[in-house]
TrEMBL record:
Protein name: Small ribosomal subunit biogenesis GTPase RsgA
Summary of the function given for this chain in its UniProt record: One of several proteins that assist in the late maturation steps of the functional core of the 30S ribosomal subunit. Helps release RbfA from mature subunits. May play a role in the assembly of ribosomal proteins into the subunit. Circularly permuted GTPase that catalyzes slow GTP hydrolysis, GTPase activity is stimulated by the 30S ribosomal subunit.
Subunit structure: Monomer. Associates with 30S ribosomal subunit, binds 16S rRNA.
GN (gene name): rsgA
Natural source organism: Rhodococcus globerulus
Binding site for GTP: 162-165, 212-220
Domain CP-type G: 115-274
Entry EC number(s): 3.6.1.-
Key words of the record: Cytoplasm, GTP-binding, Hydrolase, Metal-binding, Nucleotide-binding, Ribosome biogenesis, RNA-binding, rRNA-binding, Zinc
Cofactor note: Binds 1 zinc ion per subunit.
Binding site for Zn(2+): 297, 302, 304, 310
Family: Belongs to the TRAFAC class YlqF/YawG GTPase family. RsgA subfamily.
Lineage per the UniProt record: Bacteria, Bacillati, Actinomycetota, Actinomycetes, Mycobacteriales
Annotated localization: Cytoplasm
Pfam families: RsgA_GTPase (PF03193)
Length: 371
């Protein structure tokens, strides 16, 4: 463990991470461990043993929640934890993230930019809280999408039905969502009345990421969980639009904040698009009843449409599975396969370009020898 590591343990530092850090960086005495609090524009805020530093990110793949090695700096470059880092002048160079420790988990969706690559939303997450407002129409398909991302990440999903105090029939909503979230804890909560908040707090462990659309009450929920955390960490909240019930983006960056019980919390911006990215196992865990049926199909390459002996079609005809849920499953599987194919095409194109560049270099080399 690093000296004076009390501040770093607030962000989840432990003996296992210390061993990993020592093994990976035994030949890098000028670095120290840290955890990324926030990333923006090529720089990041990193919690280290002595406080918080503003560092160059050094990698496009860096994400909030990452454990990293950062070049050591003098006290003049640090500020106390939970305060805004201030750029100060010292004789040392600007701190830089030199490497990223292996991630225990990562929440990944297909890139919002449309590129054929995944976007990491948060790293080293233990619990994913999927929020949806229960005072209006509940989008079951969106919940299933987020569940697939959560299961795929390796974290434990919890579904929080927020604004339960304003729901016309919260019992019906709770039953409906519980039916599509096998294996996950589903709770009705209200940050306004504190209903269910004690139970939610009890099931959260380690690093907690809150996901959901704008207007789902993520920041309100986060503030209720943070409780007595310093006022500088309290997250901005906004009201939903009266016309369509949609929320405004009050959270614009992902930020890691320590809270009670040695846990940390990541509040994320509202997600408009939640595309599947290498989420095959996550989809399987979200739809276990369909996966069980697939194993009983007559043919191993069954497309589950009209093939003879298809257990999925048979269950649908008997009413054993819900048609909406089957459509959702098929949609996520198609999307996941499409993004995987795009990624493979991109990698193949990169390899082709590398081969062409190498071929040109070889030709230029032999052309020069002949002259």
């Amino acid at each position: 463990m690093p000296e004076n590591s009390t501040l770093l343990t607030e962000y989840g530092w432990n003996a296992t991470l210390s061993e990993t850090f020592d093994a990976l960086l035994v030949n890098s005495p000028d670095t120290e461990p840290g955890r990324v609090i926030r990333v923006d524009r090529g720089q990041c805020d990193v919690a280290v043993a002595t406080g918080t530093v503003r560092a160059l990110s050094g990698s496009n793949s860096l994400c909030t929640g990452d454990w990293v090695a950062v070049s050591k700096v003098t006290r003049a470059n640090t500020t106390p934890a939970n305060t805004t880092p201030v750029n100060t002048t010292s004789e040392t160079e600007t701190p830089t993230v030199t490497s990223i420790l292996p991630r225990s988990s990562s929440i990944v969706r297909s890139s919002a930019s449309g590129k054929s690559e995944g976007q990491v939303l948060a790293a080293n997450v233990d619990t994913v809280v999927i929020t949806t407002a229960s005072d209006g129409d509940v989008d079951l398909g969106r919940i299933e999408r987020l569940l697939a991302l959560a299961w795929e990440s390796g974290a434990t999903p919890v579904v929080a039905l927020t604004k339960s105090d304003a729901a016309p029939d919260i019992s019906a909503v709770l039953a409906e969502v519980s039916a599509i979230a096998p294996g996950a804890t589903v709770l009705a909560v209200s940050a306004e009345t504190s209903e269910g908040m004690d139970i939610l707090d009890a099931v959260l462990d380690g690093t907690v990421a809150i996901l959901g659309p704008s207007g789902a009450g993520k920041s309100t929920l986060a503030n209720a969980l943070l409780g007595d955390t310093a006022a500088s960490c309290v997250l901005e909240m906004g009201r939903v639009r009266a016309g369509d019930g949609k929320g405004r983006h009050t959270t614009v960056t992902r930020e890691l904040i320590p809270f009670s019980g040695g846990r940390t919390l990541i509040d994320t911006p509202g997600l408009r698009g939640v595309g599947m990215w290498n989420a095959g196992e996550g989809i399987d865990k979200t739809f276990p009843e369909i996966e069980e049926l697939i194993s009983a199909c007559r043919f191993s390459d069954c497309a589950h449409n009209s093939e003879p002996g298809c257990a999925v079609v048979g269950a649908l005809e008997r009413g054993d599975i819900d048609e909406r849920r089957l459509r959702s499953y098929r949609k996520l599987q198609r999307e996941n396969a499409w993004n995987a194919a795009r990624s493979d095409a991109r990698l193949q194109a990169e390899r082709t370009r590398e081969i062409k560049v190498l071929s040109r270099r070889i030709k230029d080399h032999y052309r020069g020898r002949r002259q």
